[in-house]
Design brief:
The protein contains nine helices and seven strands; from the N terminus they run H-H-E-H-E-H-H-E-H-E-H-E-E-E-H-H. By secondary structure, it is α/β, with parallel strands linked by helices. Helix 3 (54-59) links the parallel strand 1 (46-50) and strand 2 (71-73). The longest helix is centred in the C-terminal third of the chain and has 22 residues, at 195-216. It is globular and about 55 Å long.
Length: 251
């Protein structure tokens, strides 16, 4: 069987986007890493939020091997995965006013903590309201989004603003409107989205920058090891015990 031309084109497109965010977002990545390191050093807590498929990149930095143990998922019921039935309900909930405020008010997040908000379009009520409310509570907000949407679509939030308008630091994923890298004669819809690949890479780059900053300050980053290597469970148990007041997914 011959190699797939389209598969190769997708890899090329994804690699091109990764090279762009590496080169063009390096300053923002470093700033986000420094903000996370500041919060860790000060005894604060870390949270990540995303709705729909944007939640995948948020989950990718929570309770995982090689990740910061202090990163917690800010979960909004019904928006975390496609397991909600019907799946279209998750998309509808992203447009509900007041939901983000209710979640934040009942969460352990407080002034001085960091909240990373991931939203590809940044146009729906939920991520915009999450950013607005988080900053009002005194959290530092890092947004991971595609600025192209703010330039080429209309906001669905009552303020008329996008996620990028309400963040302390913005990381631009460079994903084009529509999130599909390929087209082909005979297929009417564009296909092969790359937002998950690129956004997850941005999140991991941010975590790496934070670890680098912490070490430079003489602080051991509270990292988790794989439970599938010898000694991993014991290591993780010690980390979770030491930082138990800042880890909420273990309770």
């Amino acid at each position: 069987m011959s190699d797939s031309k389209l598969a190769g084109q997708f890899f090329d497109a994804a690699i091109g986007l990764l090279e762009r965010v590496r080169d063009e977002e390096s300053g923002s990545i470093a700033a986000a890493g420094a903000a996370i390191a500041d919060t860790v050093e000060a005894g604060g807590r870390l949270f990540a939020f995303g709705a729909g498929h944007s939640s995948l990149a948020a989950q990718d930095v929570v309770y995982r091997a090689g990740g910061l143990a202090l990163m917690n998922l800010m979960a909004v019921p019904g928006t975390v995965g496609v397991d909600v039935m019907p799946a279209t309900l998750g998309s509808a909930l992203e447009r509900v006013d007041g939901l983000a405020g209710a979640v934040l008010d009942s969460s352990p997040a407080t002034a001085g903590d960091v909240l990373v908000i991931i939203s590809l379009s940044g146009r729906n009520a939920l991520p915009v309201e999450m950013a607005l409310n988080a900053r009002a509570l005194g959290l530092k907000v890092i947004g991971v989004t595609s600025v192209a949407y703010a330039d080429g679509t209309r906001s669905r939030h009552t303020s008329g603003g996008f996620l990028r308008d309400h963040c302390d630091i913005v990381l631009d994923s460079k994903i084009a409107i529509g999130d599909a890298e390929l087209t082909l004669d005979g297929i009417e819809a564009p296909f092969a989205p790359a937002s998950t690949v690129v956004t997850s890479a941005l999140m991991q780059a941010m975590m790496a920058a934070a670890a680098e900053q912490l070490v430079a300050r003489g602080i051991e980053p509270p990292l988790l090891r794989s439970g599938n290597v010898d000694g991993g469970h014991e290591w993780n148990g010690r980390v979770m015990t030491e930082y138990r007041d800042r880890i909420f997914y273990r309770q």
